[in-house]
Amino acid sequence: MAAASPFVAVRGSDGISMINGPPSFKNHEGFGSDRSPRCRVMVFSPDGSLFAWCNGQSILVVETAQYNLVCRLPKEKTMFMAFSPKGTHLSTWEQYSVSKDQTLPTTNLEIWNLKAARLVAAFSQKKKENWKPKWSDDETVCARSVNNEVHCYHDADFNSVATKLRLQGVEDFELSPGPPPFKIAGYVPSVKGAPSYVRLFRHPDFANPGSVLANKSFFKADRVKLLWNKKGTHVLVLTTTDVDKSGASYYGEQTLQFISTSGDSSMVLLGKRGPIYAVKWSPNSKEFCVVYGFMPAKATLFDIKCNPVFDFGTGPRNDIFYNPHGNILCLAGFGNLRGQLELWSRKDFKLISKPQADDTTYFEWSSDGEHILTATTSPRLKEGNGYKIWHYTGKLLHEKSVSELWEVTWQPVSYGVFEEPVINYEGVPAAEQQDKQKAKQVYRPPGLRGTAPSVKLHEYEPAENMKKENQEMSKSALKNKKKREAKARAKQEQGAAAEAVSPVLSSPPSTTTAASSSVPADRDKKLRNLRKKLRQIEDLKAQQKAGKTLEKNQLEKISGEAFLIKEIQELELSS
């Protein structure tokens, strides 16, 4: 018997409700709803067996099989909640506050045992960033950062710290997933010119020099993001600086570092200049995908040796989503982009579909690996709130408008309940047909309407398996072809320059000859300068799309783009 489709939990100004998944999409009668407009937060346990929410009066925890009440916790102002991996404990966080008459520190981070409905730990956690305690998958270890130390509690005993990792200046850490022995990745930022570094430790004997598994130092990092793979054997470090001193970018510089628990480390070399938008590990822990570079962004799949496995080409994308089984990969473009989704088969790298999910602020795969949830939520977007459910083939199955939608999410299901979906290409609209439909809506400046485009504003590259000519050629033949093309271009440029400036040896050039030979040279020089300005405008537009606030003179340069294109076209037509 096939497993039932997961539910969808919806939270908004009308409270919290539960919707059946495909194919019915009706309100789930077992849960009913909570119509309180003060529902600030909701969360499922990792296996989906429990559901908790705060309605402004208390926290309610129910089991999702029959929606019987498990416990009610007296917490009114909870802003964030998180279950432990097995659903034994619930961590809650509320805004830190201090009163004038208060003598003891405020404890705003609490850990509750759900079976006994009992508070087992309370801490002061002022910042909401990294508020959540880090649990091991088997719940034998719970860790949190405290004043240059990482405190580890064992077997949910919070009366004393079992072991401490002392790391001066530690700003962030991540506990590895997977089986024991567990590892901790700690990040220490640069101080007084010293490099920043990430160090890997084996739990629990931190004092033993042999507990240090790997170390990677780097200079360009104001903050980092630590990304363990599912097995806890490798970690990716996304580093970010606030300022790019080279001047190549107005909004900082990013690099991607790779560290293995075996001690190996390296920088991941990316094939295009620009920001790194997204990095995601595959569920199989053997590869990872990166979206990077000025728009149109490039997407590349790497193995655990940091070698490129597949190049997805370029496109309007800035995020990556693997389905739970890892056999379908979605490249998406949200935020300033129009919401194009590209769904690829991981097995044969075949493009499955390219649906358009406009104004999307949230994306999530269902546990069955076949269905996708996209949503437009407030306060990110005030208008057009609602959610949509899609099939991976690009078919829109359900759409619901909500007056003010705050959050929507699938019910999680333990891995293994659903079998890996077999990709069915029947009935999938051709990607070429989808592209043609969207091409009709492409904007063109008034000066270029009705004429054939002679200037490419965006150089899109197809995926490597779509480059038919190159695919049929061997590596050596392709290399030789590129060399011949480069020599031909160089020879052509040298010939044009010689023709423009070389004197005629047999006799002095007449006025008419000199004038006619100087015209092509002046025109070519002007074309080169105009094209250079056009490339600069494209860089500025890419930076603007990425969120950088441009200066007045930069905005004026962008406003002159249409005039530049028209002038380039006129010069080309006159040749």
Describe the structure.
The protein has 575 residues and is of the alpha+beta class. Helices cover 17% and strands 33% of the residues. A four-stranded antiparallel β-sheet has the order 3-2-1-36, with no helix packed on it. A four-stranded antiparallel β-sheet has the order 4-5-6-7, with no helix packed on it. β25 and β26 form a beta hairpin. Mean pLDDT is 83; it is low at 436-440 and 495-517.
Strand content: 25-35%
List the uncertain runs.
436-440, 495-517
Query: Share of helix among residues?
Result: 10-25%
In terms of structural class, how would the helical and strand content be classed?
Answer: alpha+beta
Largest sheet: 4 strands, antiparallel
Question: What assembly state would you assign to the polypeptide chains in this entry?
Answer: single chain
Strands side by side in the biggest sheet: 3-2-1-36
Key descriptive features of the protein:
single chain; four-stranded antiparallel sheet; alpha+beta; 575 residues; 17% helix
Summary of the model, kept short:
With 575 residues, the chain is an alpha+beta fold. The chain contains 6 helices and 36 strands. The termini are far apart.
Per-chain topology:
Blueprint: E1 8-12, E2 15-19, E3 33-34, E4 41-44, E5 50-54, E6 59-63, E7 69-73, E8 80-83, E9 89-93, E10 109-113, E11 118-123, E12 134-135, E13 141-145, E14 149-154, E15 163-166, E16 172-175, E17 183-188, E18 196-202, E19 212-218, E20 223-228, E21 234-241, E22 253-260, E23 265-267, E24 276-281, E25 287-292, E26 297-303, E27 308-315, E28 319-322, E29 328-332, E30 341-345, E31 351-353, E32 362-365, E33 371-376, E34 386-391, E35 396-401, E36 405-410, H1 431-439, H2 468-472, H3 475-501, H4 511-545, H5 552-559, H6 561-573
Antiparallel strand pairs: 1-2, 1-36, 2-3, 4-5, 5-6, 6-7, 8-9, 9-10, 10-11, 12-13, 13-14, 14-15, 16-17, 17-18, 18-19, 20-21, 21-22, 22-23, 24-25, 25-26, 26-27, 28-29, 29-30, 30-31, 32-33, 33-34, 34-35
